[in-house]
Fold this protein.
Amino acid sequence: MKRYSKILTRSIAATSLIALMTSSLEARLQTGPIVNHEVQQHRIERLAKHKRVRVGAMWAMTLYAEDADSKLKSVETRFGQIKKAKKGVDAYDQESFPSWPKLAVNFEADGPGSKYKGDYHNITRWRGDEWNFVVTSSDVNRAVTLRWSELQKVVLLKSKAQPRPYKRIEAPGARKLRRLLLIDLKTGEKIPAVIDGKLQSYTFNMEGEKTRRFKWKFLSVREYFKSRRLAHRNMRAKRRLEKIYAKELAKSLRAEKRAKRHSSHHTPPPAGKKEIIEE
């Protein structure tokens, strides 16, 4: 009897375990995998402290303008690429304050004349992208410097308080930073976001105007490699010219030395003295 009771209890336990597993599997298939987003966020932040997080498809950059003479600094604005972001204005874009500050940077997310402090586009892995923005200043003769930060990893969070919240995490040393190019639409000057691993900046004068238009361009993969080939070609040409210049300089120095040596052997006698000729 004891043997049969043990077998019965084991079979009941096995059937209950199978029923529990099937019910959990059905629930998972209906609701999707159970993910603890707080744990994931904690892991990402922990890795970001050790600089192991790479900027993935979703990223953001902070941009602001400053005037060192009058110690003015604009409100920080951000732009980048976020998954599921729509073309034009959506829930990710943030509208600027309606007041008129002395110095401001506004993105034209909804066309010319619109003012947004946050402009995010959809992800374009291989193609390029553009963000138009305007720098406004109350002083028409002010010298303004545009500065920007490293790329930041954007992580979407599920929250009931906000419809589509997101969080930025610092992730230095991103390769995508090399594909960003600042273009001054007035002068046509192009400034890379980073050169030799160092962040750049751009200083300009308002030149009697209250607004100045710019554009951030995210180069496509084809444009990026084309610019790299052109840069390498220019570097090789520069090195070739430097070698030619060094050779010409060395030749001229050798010629000067020969001329000095020749003149020292055939120097005329000083005035007032006659050469003594031995018979």
About this structure: Confidence is low (pLDDT under 50) at residues 27-37. Residues 194 and 200 are 6 Å apart (CA to CA). The chain has two domains: 49-219, 221-254. The helical segments are 2-31, 37-49, 221-265.
